[in-house]
């Protein structure tokens, strides 16, 4: 309810309370007149109550699809003092621009359970970032992370669910896009980590599902991708001391891809 429906409902309750007052006169003529007035007040109260319900119904219909958003976010933090004093901090730089025409979302949450869904019409995004460090624990240990992505979809949607607690849980997410074009490139390099991911493609229909099983910190993530009416090429590789991942996707007209990630 917003202010209009709440005001109608409150006013209806006040009128009903007024109409329900007992007849106080011993004169039958006055009592009859008071009865007619009370009936008319009750009719007004019922009208206001129905109006509140109608307004609330219209609010739900109108709020199903909300106007889209335009966001431009820029962030820079060089942390020069930290770099000069050999602290284990990163220098950051990023920019992100997103724009959508219409948006819709719903969420349902209970103890140990959550499910949510959202959809966006004309969903576009461009983002780029870089982060780097020189030192770790006062020792020379450089690491750099690069990321550049862009995408445009006529319609995109996501459904996600999770069950369990912080120590043991399972989650699943499914995403779908209609009329999508995208390009992505990600890389991370250090002495103990090598990671690279690149992809480009267009698709009439594109989808991805991801399932995660976490047991006391050991986590396995399985990702499957599919597309129809597409021309795509994707490859990813990641290796570090406590995590590895590999995946690929290649398709023309229709394509299937996979990713397997294990961390411990």
From TrEMBL:
Source organism, top-level taxon: Bacteria
Record-given protein name: Autotransporter outer membrane beta-barrel domain-containing protein
């Amino acid at each position: 309810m917003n202010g209009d429906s709440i005001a109608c409902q409150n006013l209806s309750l006040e009128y009903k309370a007024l109409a329900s007052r007992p007849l106080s006169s011993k004169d039958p003529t006055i009592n009859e007149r008071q009865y007619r007035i009370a009936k008319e007040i009750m009719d007004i109260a019922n009208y206001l109550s129905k109006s509140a319900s109608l307004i609330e119904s219209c609010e739900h219909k109108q709020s199903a699809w909300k106007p889209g958003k335009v966001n431009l976010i820029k962030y820079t933090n060089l942390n020069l003092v930290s770099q000069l004093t050999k602290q284990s901090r990163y220098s950051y730089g990023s920019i992100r621009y997103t724009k959508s025409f219409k948006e819709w979302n719903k969420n349902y949450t209970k103890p140990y359970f959550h499910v949510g869904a959202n959809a966006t019409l004309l969903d576009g995004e461009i983002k780029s970032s870089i982060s780097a460090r020189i030192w770790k624990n006062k020792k020379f240990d450089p690491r750099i992370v690069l990321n550049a992505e862009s995408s445009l979809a006529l319609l995109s949607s996501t459904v996600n669910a999770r069950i369990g607690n912080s120590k043991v849980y399972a989650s699943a997410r499914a995403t779908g896009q209609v009329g999508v074009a995208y390009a992505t490139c990600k890389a991370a390099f250090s002495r103990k980590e090598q990671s690279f991911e690149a992809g480009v493609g267009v698709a009439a229909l594109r989808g991805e599902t991801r399932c995660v099983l976490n047991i006391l910190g050991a986590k396995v993530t399985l990702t499957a991708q599919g597309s129809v009416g597409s021309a795509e090429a994707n490859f990813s590789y990641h290796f570090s001391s406590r995590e590895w991942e590999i995946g690929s996707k290649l398709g023309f007209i229709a394509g299937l891809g996979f990713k397997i990630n294990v961390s411990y």
